Amino acid sequence: MAEFDFDAVVVGAGAVGLACGYALAKRGQVVAVLEQDQAIGQGVSSRNSEVIHGGLYYPTGSLKARLCVEGRRRLYAFCDAHHVAYDRCGKLVVAQTADELPRLDAILEQALTNDVEGMERLSKAQALALEPELACEGALLSPQSGVFESHAYMLALEGEIEAAGGAVVLATPFEGATPLDLGGFEVRAGGAEPTTLTCRRLVTAPGLSAQAVAADIAGFPANLIPQAHYGKGMYFRLMGKAPFQRLIYPPPIPGALGTHYRRDMGGQAVFGPDLTFVDAPDYTVDPSAAPGFYRYIRRFWPGLPDGALSPDYAGVRPKIHGPGEAQPDFRLDAEDVHGLPGLVALFGIESPGLTSSLAIGEEVAERLGLGR
Length: 372
Description:
This protein is α+β, with helices and mostly antiparallel strands. Helices cover 27% and strands 26% of the residues. It is built from nine helices and 20 strands.
């Protein structure tokens, strides 16, 4: 029987990669997580809304629908067990005009189909009783939605992997993998001290680099690597007291959930992200976008003062669809898709990937034949 350096190697130490490593470590696997940056969670995981999603919108039977709801339940329990701070503040999805009220009904029906707990349809008066500064014609209340300390969560995952005998190896970019004749993979890693190691199982979860990593695995069918698209989203921070306790979301826009409001764990109000498709990752925040943010936000918060928004940060979502195209499901491609035993390659893990991360890890372990 072949001897391996590790039972499993995971490429990418963002929230999803670490959650995959954690799921494998729980099953007795000795895991190495390779990360190209100098610290964990420096890519997509460091530039998101830190929202715990309820699971309202996603199509019936999709991975997003199932893994978001399961992941959210697992995430709150994990945060409790590991003393990770969160605020289960709830979310209002608001209809800003009477024409949008039927969209709320459709979202509610989908949320109930997705087994989201506690959903309520609110009248205008009921919504304003909860959030007096809100402007809307009606709303949905999702009491299971919230925000949390995503970096503390990732540190807890890293700790679990290391406690199980695994390693999270920083400043070590993945440079390629080759399937071995007797099963498993030889993995080439770069950095200050380039090395080669072997593993029985390989998981690729590198976010924006998913396509490039897959292309560097010998034998991975090029026609099965989806085209990469970069969905940039900018955030603006409110200089002043947060106006709402709950998350505030207008109905989704094509390709994303749209610009929304959250009160972060420090108590400050943040608005975003918008969505612009860009040719390459770009994290600049253009101050000239502010007038559009003011117009959009004042539809649900007319009391937003002039001059109160400050450019904050930007994120880039690893999309596998372009402008005007339908938003596809997560892809967790295993042997049945690409024909390489012991490999699961993840593509398009954008929202609700953070919420879904623990459930994605469980799904990946199952697809690697390690059971639930």
